[in-house]
Design a protein that fits this description.
Number of helices: 0
Order of helices and strands: EEEEEEE
Strand content: over 45%
Structural class: mainly beta
Largest sheet: 4 strands, antiparallel
Shape: elongated
Radius of gyration: 14 Å
Number of strands: 7
Helix content: under 10%
């Protein structure tokens, strides 16, 4: 996902985790967030992990990208939940 922030915001906040209602599988995913190509966050999430809080500095960022990567070649059951996501001016 790519969002045009237009250098108007200071923080990107929210919660993220793997959906618990995805069936009988054990996915693992990578989450990468970049601001104008600069790495802001890189984490790996597994099913059963606690929900993680996001609080990223996006001051001066024009374009923010969120990339979800698969660690399974079949890409099965990999559902990232990103909730209460918000930009703070």
């Amino acid at each position: 996902l790519r969002y045009r922030l237009g250098r108007k915001y200071r923080r990107f906040r929210g919660l993220m985790g793997i959906d618990e209602d995805i069936g009988d599988c054990s996915p693992e995913i990578g989450v990468i967030v970049r601001g104008d190509g600069r790495l802001l966050l890189e984490v790996t999430l597994s099913r059963g992990d606690d929900v993680r809080e996001l609080d990223l500095d996006v001051k001066g960022v024009r374009d923010m990208e969120i990339e979800v990567t698969s660690t399974d070649p079949d890409g099965i059951c990999e559902h990232l939940d990103l909730v209460e996501a918000r930009l703070i001016k």
